Amino acid sequence: MAQTKSTLKQRANVAFQDDFLRKAVRFTADRLRGRKADSTGALGDWEEWRERGRAIRSHVIENLDYYLDQFIRNAEKRGIHVHFAKNTEEAIAISLKIAKDKNTKLVAKSKSMVSEEIHLNHHFEEQGIECLETDLGEWIVQLAHETPSHIIIPAIHKNRFQVQELFEKESGEKLSSDTKVLAGYARRKLRQRFAEAEIGLTGCNFALAESGSVVLFSNEGNARMVTTLPKTHIVMMGMERIIPSWEDLEVMANLLPRSATGQKITVYMTALSGPRRAGEVDGPEDVHIIILDNGRSAILGDDEFQEVLNCIRCGACLNVCPVYRQVGGHTYGGTYSGPIGAVITPLLMEDKKQWGELAYASSLCGACHEACPVKIPLHDMLVHLRRRYVEAGFTPLTERMAYKGFAAGFKSAGAYKLAGKSARWVQLTMMGDEKEESVLAKNTPMHGWTKYRTLPEPTKKAFRDRWADLAAEPPQAPRGQKPKKETE
Amino acid sequence: MERDQLFQRIADRLGRPMPAAPPVREVRGVSETYANAPYGADAGTVDRVTRFASELDALGGHATIVDTPAAASQALKNLLDELTPDTIITWERQDFADFDLEWLWDERHARSWVAENPKTEEASLAEAAERADIGVTLTDAAIANTGTLVLWTTPKHARSVSLLPTAHIAIVRESQIVDRMGEALAKVTALAHGDVPSSVHFITGPSRSSDIENDLSIGVHGPAALYAILCRGC
Asked: Is A46 helix (H, G, I), strand (E, B) or coil?
């Protein structure tokens, strides 16, 4: 899942230079958020729906071994091959083996965050197997050699002219920047290739334990294409994707699309239960499901974080996040961005020091929690992550010393008084206005704040010094009652 | 990794042995409130046919309401006259027996994509499906409060017919229209032999994408046009 060695701050600075990106992210987030509000409002008591969503998902996670077992038994009864991958390496090895057994040259993919998580395309291409993203946004991102910047709208950061350029380079044809023309080209071009692919690869939105079925949501229809034309279908699923039964699917099918895009339901919802049956004329002949752990089981049993496994990957938390809207998805550096990315990336990744800093990409406002259709307390989790980051000693020495000093200052009255006095002197060095920044303000250890915000001039007399004088003054007239002397 | 290892790891992390009996569930499916009022608390009496039509129209689909099977046949004929397709693929004649559609094969040369066709013809049919202008199907269920068609795969009902052509026309019987998704899901789980089909497709409007600058494009992979002929009293 690691995609970068740069720091959060460096990546944020890159995003800050990209005006189109920031405008596009804000526009999309507002649009999706507005549509969500309309569609959830129409459903009646949205809070009750959220609570049911939470209850169903929490129940599955608390009994994950039971439901996984049930799912696997039912899937195998249908002739599906089920595989288990502990980590990225195992998932790649298993999927590569299937691909090689089938002499695969081309894999047609519909959107799968898990395949992004394990960098499947990269590993397949190293072995000379082409992976073709068929979701329009994912294909754009693939042609640009980039990664998705939003869970639901992967190419949110690209404008139509950039897409035109990418498609013209791919086709050698002259196209226009009209989105209809561009989408039409994608249809023609990709249509030729679905049937060429030996393997269709998808993610899994929900896995139904009671029947061993895999449910996929899509608007374009590419998930249907890759599960209809290629002879082999591989499903990449995170081990927590389970729901117990078909009736629970109705709850999820109302929560997920409304939260993601404000649609009542996506254009296509497809429940797949094994390979084509005897006598059927289309659909895959061979189906493999790869169930991936990759750090998920380590979150189980952890009271502070277990609920994060309830996530249904709708992206609603991204669309309300004041930090995401400023920096976009790439700033988070991993596969998952926004508040959910800031929580699960540090949990799933082994390098807690590098990825733990993501928990600081938040104002802790809690909008993500309010938006979450399964009520994950993401903002609380960000605080827990910060605590663990500090406890592990990952914060910079200066910060640790500052907090030690802070603690010492608050422990004794004398030290507190002294600190108050010296703070006035420190404040003097950081005064200024927007035009005239103090040199010191830009260079102190607190420059993250003081570089852009200058402090006001301290009052002539400190509050503590005034307090003694105030106590000696005669009592004032009560509030609301005008002193008589002045009005007469 | 072996599955037993995975289950052991989960049980260890959760600090208890793996449950042998089904866990007790407090919440299952949608709330009673919603099940009893799938159009909202103050919706009053809802006519499923008109509701389905208005939902589908709102999504850029096209619904036509007719009162008899013969009128459904005529509505289909009108649509085809308007769309002038070169190739039409569909299911078997018997499937449409109630609707008097013999002309679809005899005059419009529709091709039925089913398993009974000889192998030699199958390859050309696959190609025909991929290039077809129109796919004509019936439905197994339809959901009124979202305007959703439900079709499942059988040897006689191939998945490609509702997917590959440029336009999809579905004839929907009034008797198949339910209020909400849960009722359609219950139809699936109640199927004969106690087994669910190899694939169940919920289709709500034409294929769409907003991946380029949030601008809506229709027909990115699936059919670019979706027509439903809703037959009352059928």
From this structure: helix
Please report the residues numbered 120 through 179 in chain A whose beta carbons come closer than 8 angstroms to any beta carbon of chain B. 134-137, 140, 153-155, 158-160, 163, 179
Burial class (CB in 10 A: 0-12, 13-18, 19+), A368: buried
Give the residue from chain A lying closest to B131, CA to CA. Answer: A191
Stretch (H or E) spanning A238:
strand A232-238
Residue A2 has pLDDT above 50, yes or no: no
Q: What is the pLDDT of residues A245-272, one digit of tens each?
A: 999 999 999 999 999 999 999 999 999 9
Alpha helices (H) along A323-451:
324-327, 338-348, 352-356, 367-371, 378-391, 397-411, 413-429, 439-443, 447-450
Name residues whose C-beta falls within 8 Å of residue A474's C-beta, 6 or more positions apart in sequence.
none
| Closest Cα in chain B to A110 | B221
Closest listed residue to residue A361, CA positions, set A385, A399, A332: A332
- For residues B137 and A414, what is the distance between their CA atoms, to the nearest angstrom? 85
Instruction: Using a CB–CB cutoff of 8 Å, tell me whether A33 touches chain B.
Output: no
Total CB pairs under 8 A between chain A and B: 262
Q: Which residues of A touch B201 (CB under 8 A)?
A: 224, 268-270
- Mean pLDDT of the residues in chain A: 89
Kindly report, residue by residue over A212-241, the tens digit of the pLDDT.
999 999 999 999 999 999 999 999 999 999
Residue length of chain B: 234
Q: What size, in residues, is chain A?
A: 488
Which of 274-293 (A) contact B at CB < 8 A? 274-283, 291, 293
Question: Which residues 6+ apart lie within 8 Å of A246 measured at CB?
Answer: A208, A210, A211, A271, B185, B186, B188, B189, B196
C-alpha distances out from residue A473 to A470, A485, B113, Å? 5, 18, 98
Give Cα A45 to chain centroid, integer Å. Answer: 26
* Token reading at A6: 């740069």
Mutate to test the interface with A, among B57, B212, B216, B218 (most CBs of A within 10 A): B212
Residues 6+ away with beta carbon under 8 Å from A69: B7, B18
- DSSP category for residue B154: B
Whole-angstrom CA distances from B162 to A314, A386, B158 are: 27, 51, 8
DSSP string of A127-164, one letter each residue: TT-EEEE-SHHHHHHHHTT---SSSS-TTTT--HHHHH
Residues sharing a CB contact under 8 Å with residue A165, sequence separation 6 or more, in sequence order? none
Q: Taking the mean position of all CA atoms in its chain, how far away is CA B18?
A: 39
CA distance A183 to chain B (A): 6
The per-residue DSSP string of A76-122 comes to HHTT-EEEEESSHHHHHHHHHHHHHHTT-SEEEE---HHHHHTTHHH
Query: Using CA atoms, how far apart are residues A311 and B121, in angstroms rounded to an integer?
Result: 47
Contact (CB<8Å) A191/B217:
no
Please report residues of A whose CB lies closer than 8 A to that of B125: 281
For residues A64 and A72, the answer to whether their CB atoms sit within 8 Å is no
Separation in Å, CA A308 to CA A204, A240, A379: 18, 10, 11
The torsion angle over the Cα atoms of residues A96, A98, A101 and A105, rounded to 10 degrees, is -60
CB of A84 within 8 Å of a chain B CB? The answer is yes
- pLDDT tens by residue, A233-246: 999 999 999 999 99
Task: Pick the residue of A267, A269, A304 with the most B CBs within 10 A to test the interface with B by mutation.
Answer: A267
Cα dihedral across residues A114, A117, A120, A122: positive or negative: positive
pLDDT in tens, A141-175: 999 999 888 888 889 889 899 999 999 999 998 99
Its pTM stands at: 0.91
Distance to chain B for A10, nearest Cα, Å: 26
Residues 304-343 of A with CB under 8 A from B: none
What ipTM did this prediction achieve? 0.96
